[in-house]
Amino acid sequence: MVTAPSGRKKRQPETPGWTLRLQSTQVQGTAVRTDAQEQQGSASLGSVACGPAGGSGPWWPSALRTSSGTQRHNDLPWQLLKLFNNQLQDPRANLTSLAHTHTNIPKLKAGFVGAQFWSAYTPCDTQNKDAVKRTLEQIDVIHRMCQLYPETFLCVTDSTGIRQAFREGKVASLVGVEGGHSIDSSLGVLRALYHLGMRYLTLTHTCNTPWADNWLVDTGEDKARSQGLSLFGQSVVKEMNRLGVIIDLAHTSTATMKAVLQLSKAPVVFSHSSAYSVCQHRRNVPDDVLQLVKRTGSLVMVNFYNDYVSCRAEANLSQVADHLDHIKKVAGAGAVGLGGDYDGVSRLPSGLKDVSKYPDLAAELLRRQWTEAEVKGALANNLLRVFEAVEQASSHTQPPGEEPIPLDQLEASCRTSYGYSGAPSLHLQPGALLASLALLVLCLCPL
Fold it and tell me: What SS3 class is residue 302?
């Protein structure tokens, strides 16, 4: 999701492989002949031609759909809120015919999308207000999508569920919460969202939280508040590791990226970020961080937003592939994923106008001599590996974190301070009492 700064707004073996004999690939209207490729001793799919960009084309192997599927960051739930106030039974909200969005059911099928992280996003201006309520409503609409279209979507919460959806030919649907402000600086809220199905949390959006810094710190538009990650932020990371929630570092400052990559006991993801060396935008991932990504077995899922792809208003499919190439070169093929950010951005590259166009990007990677295993990794298997590693690192037998954030680190707004006075395990920071008094004076909430 992109908003203007002012808006603040036990590892399973890989599914048996497939063989693709690609004789002629058309990408962006240019035909390129490649050598025949055969892997893993499976029967050849024969001579397959990729259709021109602008159509999914007959070349796309069905074995890829059944063995890998795809998983990405998608903001369709945000569009459902903006357009229909989450009223899915409004005839205009019918996902089989939904217009003017990057995502609907026919487009998902045309793009062979087998799994999807749906973003439960709420803007930064909800921080210290109704962020938790708004987040709960976005999680609810994701669940209702699965209930209303059970023939298409299967809501799942683990890697086993993703594989089940692949077998059933459905889109595995998972919840990702985009923005640490959605937990309102509460480990209890973090756990509650986990129980409601959240399986990744983006630590910041385009605003600092009281415990982590966002990417605008690196541009000078925001001031560092936590110097990357505060002590409470470290508690959030540890609790996410304990629960088995994927840590997402998209939107975070470089200092936050490095602090988390050094602290986390499980791999992390950048759910929709690109390569800084290719496009020097602060939302992208610099090479020294990519080295940490490689060292920790983490994953960068490339964003398709033009401004992050080309650093200009216009971009194309080939330039997206340049980001994938660079991440592969620096961090390895296992670190590459596709983030997309469909329905969360206003400008997309030519050749990637909606979710139906993923096959054309896969064709471009094959044209660039990526192996079939590498393409399958970028499409899904790399994220499955990370998800399984996060699940293996979790430990629900360990006691949960309980120490709350110091009261004086919270915004002075209309919030109560129950529990902050006299709790024996709580060590109030200097100034916490003054902060409490300030809340009484400043928060003249009507009875």
Answer: strand
Single-letter amino acid code for the residue at 263: L
Sheet with strand 30-33: strands edge to edge: 30-33, 21-27, 47-49
Count CA atoms within 13 Å of residue 174 on its CB side: 29
Looking at the DSSP bridge assignments, the partners of residue 301 are 337
Report the alpha-carbon distance of residue 30 to residue 54 in Å, rounded: 13
| Both tokens assigned to 323 | 């980001």
> Rounded to whole angstroms, what are the CA distances from 272 to 186, 357, 430?
25, 17, 39
> Distance between CA atoms of 147 and 204, rounded to whole angstroms?
30
3-state class (DSSP) for residue 432 = helix
Residue found by looking up tokens 């094959």 in the block: 366
Instruction: Tell me whether strands 73-74 and 47-49 are parallel, antiparallel or unpaired.
Output: unpaired
| Residues 94-103: contacts with CB under 8 Å, at least 24 apart | 95/145, 95/148, 95/149, 95/152, 96/149, 101/76, 101/343, 102/76, 102/342, 102/343, 102/348, 102/353, 102/354, 102/355, 103/74, 103/76, 103/79, 103/342, 103/343, 103/354, 103/355
In tens digits, what is the pLDDT along the chain, a chain of 447 residues? 765 554 443 334 333 333 333 333 333 333 332 332 333 322 222 222 233 333 334 444 543 444 445 668 999 999 999 999 999 999 999 999 999 999 999 999 999 999 999 999 999 999 999 999 999 999 999 999 999 999 999 999 999 999 999 999 999 999 999 999 999 999 999 999 999 999 999 999 999 999 999 999 999 999 999 999 999 999 999 999 999 999 999 999 999 999 999 999 999 999 999 999 999 999 999 999 999 999 999 999 999 999 999 999 999 999 999 999 999 999 999 999 999 999 999 999 999 999 999 999 999 999 999 999 999 999 999 999 999 999 999 999 999 999 999 999 998 677 899 999 765 544 444 444 444 444 444 444 444
Active site residues: 73, 75, 178, 205, 251, 272, 341
